[in-house]
Amino acid sequence: MTTPTTPAADLPAPTDLPGPAAPDPTAPNTRALRVLALCGFLLLAGCLVLTAVLGLVDAVEGDGVGGGLLTAGLWSLALGAAAGTAALAVPRRTLVAAQYALAFAAPVLAALD
């Protein structure tokens, strides 16, 4: 015959429970991430100009038709702006990294066209 146990007997003592995790001292704070996201918008503007110049050079010297990679580059800029806006609202390191990666990808894609 088994003896009935109370549910509280199976729980760990309050001192045995783990406490809140200590914050990572090397992680950037939210203000730094927002500043990086704002600087990313300046980078996006510069990459937009460079992408437009590369598209116009291709139009004059090439066949006169923008290809699919130029379109992909412009979409990359639009998605980078969306990632930057999201990084301003909810500062995350991955959103800022995505913003910068998409900004740098646009002129590269336009140059490949």
Molecular structure report:
- The chain is mostly helical and 113 residues long.
- The protein is built from three helices and no strands.
- It is elongated and about 85 Å long.
- 23% of the residues are buried.
Summary of the model, kept short:
The protein is an all-alpha fold. The protein is built from 3 helices and no strands.
Helix percent reads 55-70%
Q: Classify the secondary structure makeup into a structural class.
A: mainly alpha
Query: What is the number of beta strands?
Result: 0
Largest sheet: none
Distance between the termini: 80 Å
Mean pLDDT, all residues:
86
- What percent strand? under 5%
Low-pLDDT stretches: none
Compressed to H and E, one letter per element, the order equals HHH
What is the C-alpha radius of gyration, as a whole number of Å? 25 Å
Q: What general form does the structure show?
A: elongated
Total helical segments: 3
Distinctive features:
mainly alpha, 113 residues, elongated
